[in-house]
Specification:
single chain; 220 residues; alpha/beta; Rossmann fold; two-stranded antiparallel sheet; 6 helices; 10 strands; methyltransferase; transferase; Methyltransf_16
Length: 220
């Protein structure tokens, strides 16, 4: 881990609710109002702090991470906020998650990008560690950026998650991972990631316990 991370605060950049629905949150990134429908039924259908942190960082560091016309894959896209921000920044986005999350994810992405002059995002099923070669063959699926937010918490799929990150991160790919660090398992995952990738902590959001990391493949 090189260089000291930037210490940041997640800005309160969502706007007051215009609607009376309790399941919709309004955010503003890159000059666009984004309306996100959440669902309390699934972990993946709620906006977690890592998504806010990465969205804010991508907006503020466009020179360092220029997404225009880049191929971007989000794993565990959840509500789609990060994918929508990446799309607004000009990326070719593929947003992926578990089958039960895709309906809400597709809804949020389509309603927030339908009237914009940008590359239309793709929404696809991805179960970590399963069917990667069949569904995303290496010969045709190379990504400039892999984005992940709050994908590490108490669940049993940490090994498949790591295998998925390894699968998609080829030489030249940048993995940006933002996560709220709460449990020893979070730090253990970070340690494992560091044994495989070159990792740098880009930013920390102490109030939210979020760290944002950049990881790249070690080239022999």
């Amino acid at each position: 881990l090189t260089d000291a991370p930037v210490i940041l605060t997640i800005l309160q950049n969502w706007v007051p609710r215009v609607s009376h629905y309790f399941d919709k949150e309004h955010y503003t990134y890159v000059g666009h109002q984004i309306v996100i429908q959440e669902s309390i039924e699934y972990f993946g259908a709620v906006v977690w702090p890592g998504a806010l942190a990465l969205s804010q960082y991508l907006e503020s560091n466009q020179e360092q991470f220029n997404l225009k016309d880049k191929k971007v894959l989000e794993i565990g896209a959840g509500t789609g906020l990060v994918s929508i921000v990446a799309c607004i920044l000009g990326a070719y986005v593929t947003a992926t998650d578990l089958p039960e999350v895709l309906e809400n994810l597709s809804y949020n992405i389509s309603r927030n990008t339908e009237n914009m002059n940008m590359h239309k995002p793709e929404v696809r099923k991805l179960v970590w560690g399963e069917g990667l070669n069949e569904d995303f063959p290496v010969s045709t699926h190379h990504y400039d950026f892999v984005l992940a937010t709050d994908v590490v918490y108490h669940h049993t799929a940490l090994e498949p998650l790591l295998a998925t990150m390894v699968y998609f991160c080829k030489p030249g790919t940048v993995l940006l991972w933002a996560n709220k660090f709460r449990f020893s398992t979070d730090y253990e995952f970070l340690e494992k990631l560091g044994t495989i990738f070159n990792t740098t902590i880009l930013a920390e959001f102490p109030e939210s316990n979020v760290k944002l990391l950049k990881a790249t493949v070690r080239e022999n």
